[in-house]
Design brief:
Elements: H1 5-19, E1 32-33, E2 40-43, E3 48-50, E4 53-55, E5 66-68, E6 76-83, E7 87-96, E8 102-108, E9 113-118, E10 125-134, E11 137-144, E12 151-159, H2 179-191, E13 196-197, E14 199-201, H3 203-213, E15 219-223, H4 229-232, H5 240-249, E16 253-257, H6 287-290, H7 297-318, E17 323-326, H8 343-360, E18 366-370, E19 386-391, H9 400-410, E20 415-421, H10 427-432, E21 440-442, H11 445-448, H12 456-464, E22 468-469
Parallel strand pairs: 13-22, 14-15, 15-16, 16-17, 17-18, 18-19, 19-20, 20-21
Antiparallel strand pairs: 1-2, 2-12, 3-6, 4-5, 6-11, 7-10, 7-12, 8-9, 8-11
Bound molecules: 2-acetamido-2-deoxy-beta-D-glucopyranose (2 copies) and calcium ion.
GO molecular function: carbohydrate binding; mannan endo-1,4-beta-mannosidase activity
Organism: Corynascus novoguineensis
Protein name: Mannan endo-1,4-beta-mannosidase
């Protein structure tokens, strides 16, 4: 229940494209620039081009030109790169996004792919492309069109420095956090960097995982969506609190998100039904206007909704269940109304949520999980305990780009979770990349029950790994 369809489809098209290989023309040699110590630069114009061309019109390039013409989904550049040993490298891409903000897909050795975003620039810029684990010998790195319409000058590979020790905050922000929340936080700190908690969205899909792998996920993520007052008005009856309690009673850990149906202003048309009311495109509710004064009617409705959700969180608190609480998820994407007016209203709403739940309602079982990557959207260290990202990329890769972005965002003082994924990460990859995600939670339905995202073999590998903690392996975490 995420990103725009267009965005998702872009990714899938690009991934499909990555698999095709139409015998492209082969450059006579690959220029390698090893001027910088440890770094090797590969010029794009010397690489293998499919559907793309060399040009020289945009000045400031290195080598003899750059590559352009990413206008079809299958258009790409294939670099052949060498590594003396199997080793992790930092990838830097020299790019000119002269036509606006863009995305490219990086594919390593025809398999794992990652999405790299870059912002509009009228000149060349060196963009971090994340990390790549190269095999000993020759490897291929493809840059596949994705959004297309950008210029590539070169790529640079530098051996990654080992990750320094994490400096995680010893305690939660809320000084009144209850014993259950503290015990969970302490337990999470004790495993961070050493293990990953397996997790699944929705109880029915956690049970599905158990059937498939023989192991039950350690963490269950549930949605308070159907407790939103503008859904309850239409007759919804939430059951996710009961599901959370059920999982907690068998010794599991609980994460909660909230697809907050807009309090008012739902179009409820043929195309945009009331139950889509958390999407920007399904409502004219204006979060910025609502927050502009505390005495306007829509501010009151926001508070009414928060109070309704407080009731549900309180039930979990009363049942002794600490909650990894992830409100206003994916705000920076803009596809949900709470992110539709930019960073400032989203941060303001987060501050209201924090104040209302913690200070007004005195709810003390919450561990506050923030869920956007960008520094502009960050509510601040004082109200965020854990950072997270929602990542939808096929290939069961380690998502190290997003992990490293969040290390940067939190100064390595906050633990980092993969709060929603399409594809569960393979443990050997996580360890090789030192991508120390605290947990992963696979979205339900079309993701967990879809071999293109999670093959039964990969799920088994993941759930049987020593690196991945399952429900049976975390029993008694409250006492540790
Ligand atoms: C090689 O790389 C260095 C450092 O990035 C750069 O200054 C130099 O212009 C490059 N040489 C060529 C021939 O591209
Ligand atoms: C509250 O929001 C609704 C839906 O967007 C809008 O129609 C209404 O005018 C707003 N009310 C106020 C007082 O701004
Ligand atoms: Ca070049």
């Amino acid at each position: 229940m995420v990103r725009t369809l267009q965005y998702l489809l872009c990714g899938i098209v690009a991934l499909a494209a990555a698999g095709t290989n139409a015998a492209p023309a082969r450059a006579p040699f690959a220029r390698r620039n090893t001027t910088e110590p440890g770094a090797t630069t590969y010029e794009a114009e010397d690489a293998i081009l499919s559907g793309t061309q060399v040009d020289t019109a945009q000045e400031g390039f290195t080598g003899s030109g750059y590559v352009t013409g990413f206008d079809e989904a299958t258009d790409k550049i294939t670099f052949e790169v060498e590594s003396a040993t199997s080793q992790l490298y930092d990838l830097s891409i020299r790019i000119a996004a002269i036509y606006g903000d863009k995305h490219t897909t990086v594919v390593l050795n025809g398999g794992a792919s990652s999405d790299v975003a870059f912002t509009e620039s009228d000149t060349w810029a060196d963009i971090s492309g994340g990390q790549l684990l190269l095999n000993e010998g020759t490897n291929t790195i493809e840059l596949v069109s994705n959004w297309g319409w950008y210029l590539v000058d070169s790529i640079k590979l530098t051996p990654s420095a080992p990750r320094p020790e994490h400096q995680i905050n010893p305690s939660l922000n809320n000084p009144s956090a209850d014993a259950n929340a503290k015990a969970l936080y302490d337990y999470l700190r004790s495993i961070y960097g050493k293990k990953i908690l397996s997790g699944q969205q929705d109880l029915v899909w956690a049970d599905y995982v158990a059937e498939q792998t023989g192991k039950t996920p350690a963490l269950l993520s549930v949605d308070l969506m159907d407790y939103s007052p503008s859904r309850v008005e239409h007759g919804t009856k939430g059951t996710s609190v009961e599901e959370a309690i059920e999982h907690a009673e068998r010794g599991g850990i609980i994460s909660v998100l909230w697809h907050w149906n807009a309090p008012v202003g739902l179009y409820d048309t043929e195309e945009q039904r009331w139950w889509s009311g958390f999407y920007t495109e399904a409502t004219d509710f204006d979060v910025e206007a609502a927050l502009s004064s505390t005495d306007n009617a829509n501010y009151t409705l926001l508070v009414r909704d928060i109070d309704a959700i407080a009731e549900q969180l309180k039930r979990l608190e009363d049942a002794g269940v600490p909650v990894l609480w992830r409100p206003l998820h994916e705000a920076e994407g803009g596809w949900f109304w709470w992110g539709a007016k930019g960073a400032e209203p989203a941060k303001k709403l987060y501050a209201l949520l924090y104040d209302r739940l913690v200070n007004h309602h005195g709810i003390n079982n919450l561990i506050w999980v923030w869920n956007s990557l960008s520094a502009d959207w960050y509510p601040g260290d004082e109200t965020v305990d854990i950072l997270s990202a929602d990542v939808y990329a096929q290939g069961n890769g380690p998502m190290s780009t997003q992990y490293n972005q969040l290390i940067e965002l939190g100064g390595d003082k906050k633990m980092i979770a993969a709060s929603e994924v399409g594809a569960a990460p393979l443990p050997d990859q996580l360890q090789a990349y030192e991508a120390h995600w605290l947990w992963f939670a696979v979205w339900g339905d079309t993701f967990i029950n879809n071999a293109e995202w999670n093959s039964p073999e990969n799920l088994k590998t993941i759930y049987e790994s020593d690196y991945v903690l399952t429900l049976d392996e975390i029993q008694g975490w409250q006492e540790s």
